[in-house]
Amino acid sequence: MEAARYRPNIVLDTGGPGFGENDWVGRDLVVGEAVLRVMAPTPRCSVPTLEHGALPRDTGALRVPARLNLVEPLPGLGPRPCAGVYAQVVTPGRVDVGDPFRLL
Fold first, then answer.
1. pLDDT higher than 80, residue 1
2. For residue 36, what pLDDT is reported?
3. At a CB cut-off of 8 Å and minimum separation 6, what does 24 contact?
4. Which of 33, 48, 81, 82 could be a cystine partner for 66, CB 3.0 to 4.6 Å?
5. Do 63 and 81 contact (CB within 8 A), yes or no?
6. What pLDDT is recorded for position 4?
7. CA-CA distances (angstroms) from residue 40 to 1, 9, 64, 75?
8. 70-79, pLDDT tens digit by residue?
9. What pLDDT digit, counting tens, does each position of 28-57 carry?
10. What are the boundaries of each domain within the chain?
11. What is d(CA 86, CA 64) in angstroms, rounded to the nearest whole number?
12. CA dihedral over 39, 102, 30, 42, signed as positive or negative
């Protein structure tokens, strides 16, 4: 999966298995000086399949989340291909490339 296709604000290398962020829902995440509350997995639409800057159109961009991470992001929404999570800012703060992160 090419992260740029999914337009992330923050990319974290957890060193763990893919889609581990699903288990973070309801927890706080400290990144740099900021604290974020993880709210829900991010359901994906067809936008990641479109051309993005130097990335060409890729009609298969949703195949991985559709095959490996079909989850219900919100009650009643039904299963959706998800990649990443929505998070709410609890404590604003500076975040720089390479900053450490941890779950509370």
1. no
2. 99
3. 38, 85, 103
4. 81
5. no
6. 82
7. 20, 15, 19, 10
8. 999 999 999 9
9. 999 999 999 999 999 998 888 999 888 999
10. 3-92
11. 19
12. negative
